[in-house]
């Protein structure tokens, strides 16, 4: 699964670091470090973190049917 | 401009080409599909990778917390694109509406989006740049190589340039317990972006964390050993430092060379475009079918005196891409302006640094909350009596308020009292930006000799 955090929006509430500590970690008081491609083991934790972020800064890519069409055609990268 | 029938046809079965498969290119592609474009979408990128995120490269990737290939950007939706990755665009024929590619093929378009971004400025001396141990940091591959070398535990790392990237690299080195020297031409780190008042705070962070910070000097030469490995660096003040690794962090160059001769207003400062992201041609007339977004774009911002801003900001790439994509496939009166207020962040030495507005337009600064000495504060920047920017160190929550202040042209110094205001924040002081007439980076080249046949070019770093 792929994750990205808009760190312009992030205000250091640290909800994600509480809910998915294997993926998100505070670095100092406010700065956030995270793994952009965490193992699917943490999927539920990451989705909880995404939902709990007070400023909605976390984007998670789904792995459901919507993505199945991607890769048709000359897709050597997507 | 398209009349309705042809616009409908464009949206249904047109060909849109996006040159640049990074953050801006990807977000533009998503917006195009989101807004109902069902034609052919071609994504061209010179790197072999799907779009990835760059900010983590100088932070968690170099720290060794995540590998560089864990930075692929999540898709917000399927984009059903034809991907041409690992092949650079080499030319643009505006009248034939065709992009030439490095593999000799070409792609025709009805609408083109240029999002080719920037690349890191290399060390100007090619021989020295080629020494084993000399790095730049911009791409995923750069990060992988540098991470590998830092992991090997070099005796000392030299960082050339103390802007945001250079400072973040120095911070990572200290966190990995590597000895690091930082050479900066300006009076303090970050002085070009934030001024020397805040730059002094950044310098304190360097010192506190054991960085050998040298300001007001330039690196005049990199010296290798017999095997072509970096051994030593020479400074303009006569000093030297022995280092196995040097990271050149001297800013970026815009990827516009491939547009030379195309007729677009493209140069070293980017591609000029209107606030609706339509590219200007060399005559200053907008090209209806060519749009620009991200780091490579230069667009006028009404909030900042219609100054053409080119911003190497993550959030700008996202916002501008969405506006460009929308405008590419809508009627003229439905076009939107790109009025994004500049926003960026950096994390170094455990401190979260954020900025809104355009600090380097300012002449004065006031610490409105907290204290510089505590490295936790909010500073507002003033320009001709109005708030033009704000910077926070570990006080990100206040930035949104300051964004509104900037957008409403609030007076400077702020007339209201704030919580946690200290004595040092009672009156504004000069922000300490470098004189814009003095170059801050890049080599100076001089020509000597008496006759044209005798002319020599001399590289003068200091």
Automatic annotation (TrEMBL), chain A:
This protein's UniProt keywords: 3Fe-4S, Electron transport, Iron, Iron-sulfur, Metal-binding, Transport
Q: Which Pfam families match?
A: Fer4_13
Q: Which residues cross the membrane?
A: none
Q: Which cofactor does it need?
A: [3Fe-4S] cluster
Domain of life, per UniProt, equals Bacteria
Which InterPro entries does the record cross-reference, listed alphabetically? Fe-S_cluster_ET
Q: Keyword DNA-binding, does the record have it?
A: no
Q: Does the keyword Repeat apply?
A: no
- The entry's protein name is Ferredoxin
Q: Which organism is it from?
A: Streptomyces yatensis
TrEMBL record, chain B:
Q: Where is this region: Disordered?
A: 425-462
Show where the FAD/NAD(P)-binding domain sits: 15-321
- InterPro entries in the record, alphabetically? FAD-oxidoreductase/Apoptosis, FAD/NAD-bd_sf, FAD/NAD-binding_dom, FAD/NAD-linked_Rdtase_dimer_sf, Reductase_C
The protein's matches in Gene3D superfamilies, at most eight in alphabetical order, are given as: 3.30.390.30, FAD/NAD(P)-binding domain (3.50.50.60)
Q: Where is the Reductase C-terminal domain?
A: 343-414
Q: Which UniProt keywords apply?
A: FAD, Flavoprotein, Oxidoreductase
Transferase listed as a keyword: no
Q: Do the record's keywords include Protease?
A: no
Q: Per the entry, which co-factors are needed?
A: FAD
Q: Name one Pfam family in it.
A: Pyr_redox_2
Locate the compositionally biased regions of type Polar residues. Answer: 443-462
Q: What is this protein called?
A: FAD-dependent oxidoreductase
Question: Organism source for this protein?
Answer: Streptomyces yatensis
């Amino acid at each position: 699964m792929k994750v990205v955090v808009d760190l312009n929006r992030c205000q250091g509430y640290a909800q994600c670091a509480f809910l998915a500590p294997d993926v998100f970690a505070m670095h100092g008081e406010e700065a956030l470090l995270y793994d952009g491609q965490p193992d699917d083991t943490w999927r539920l934790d990451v989705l909880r973190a995404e939902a709990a972020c007070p400023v909605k800064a976390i984007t998670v890519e789904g792995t459901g049917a919507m993505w199945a069409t991607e890769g048709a055609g000359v897709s050597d990268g997507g | 401009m398209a009349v309705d029938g042809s616009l409908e046809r464009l949206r249904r079965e047109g060909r849109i080409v996006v040159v640049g498969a990074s953050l801006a290119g990807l977000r533009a592609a998503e917006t195009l599909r989101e807004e109902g474009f069902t034609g052919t979408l071609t994504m061209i990128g010179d790197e072999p990778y799907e779009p990835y995120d760059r900010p983590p490269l100088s932070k968690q990737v170099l720290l060794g917390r995540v590998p560089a290939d864990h930075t692929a950007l999540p898709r917000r939706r399927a984009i059903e694109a034809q991907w041409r990755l690992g092949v650079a665009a080499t030319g643009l024929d505006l009248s034939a509406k065709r992009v030439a590619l490095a593999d000799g093929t070409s792609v025709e378009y009805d609408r083109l989006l240029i999002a080719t971004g920037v690349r890191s400025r290399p060390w100007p001396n090619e021989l020295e740049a080629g020494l084993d141990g000399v790095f730049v940091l911009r791409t995923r591959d750069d990060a992988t190589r540098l991470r590998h070398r830092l992991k090997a535990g070099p005796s000392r790392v030299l960082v050339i340039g103390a802007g945001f990237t250079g400072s973040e690299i120095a911070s990572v080195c200290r966190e990995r317990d590597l000895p690091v020297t930082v050479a900066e031409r300006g009076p303090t780190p970050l002085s070009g972006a934030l001024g020397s008042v805040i730059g002094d705070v950044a310098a304190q962070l360097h010192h506190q964390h054991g960085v050998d910070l040298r300001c007001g000097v330039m690196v005049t030469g990199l010296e290798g050993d017999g095997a072509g490995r970096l051994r030593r660096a020479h400074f303009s003040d006569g000093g030297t430092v022995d280092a196995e690794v040097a990271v050149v962090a001297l800013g970026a160059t815009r990827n516009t060379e491939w547009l030379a001769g195309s007729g677009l207003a493209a140069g070293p400062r980017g591609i000029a475009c209107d606030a609706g992201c339509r590219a200007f041609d060399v005559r200053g007339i907008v090209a209806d079918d060519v749009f620009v977004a991200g780091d490579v774009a230069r667009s006028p911002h009404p909030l900042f005196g219609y100054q053409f801003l080119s911003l190497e900001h993550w959030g700008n790439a996202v916002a501008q891409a969405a506006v460009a994509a929308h405008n590419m496939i809508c009627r003229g009166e439905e076009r939107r302006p790109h009025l994004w207020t500049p926003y960026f962040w950096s994390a170094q030495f455990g401190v979260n640094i954020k900025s809104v507005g355009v600090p380097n337009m300012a002449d004065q600064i006031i610490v409105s909350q907290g204290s510089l000495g505590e490295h936790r504060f909010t500073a507002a920047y003033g320009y001709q009596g109005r708030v033009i920017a704000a910077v926070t160190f570990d006080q990100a929550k206040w930035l949104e308020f300051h964004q509104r202040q900037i957008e409403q042209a609030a007076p400077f110094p702020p007339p209201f009292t704030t919580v946690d205001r200290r004595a040092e924040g009672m009156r504004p002081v000069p922000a300490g930006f470098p004189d814009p007439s003095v170059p801050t980076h890049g080599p100076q080249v001089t020509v000597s000799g008496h006759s044209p046949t005798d002319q020599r070019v001399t590289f003068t770093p200091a």
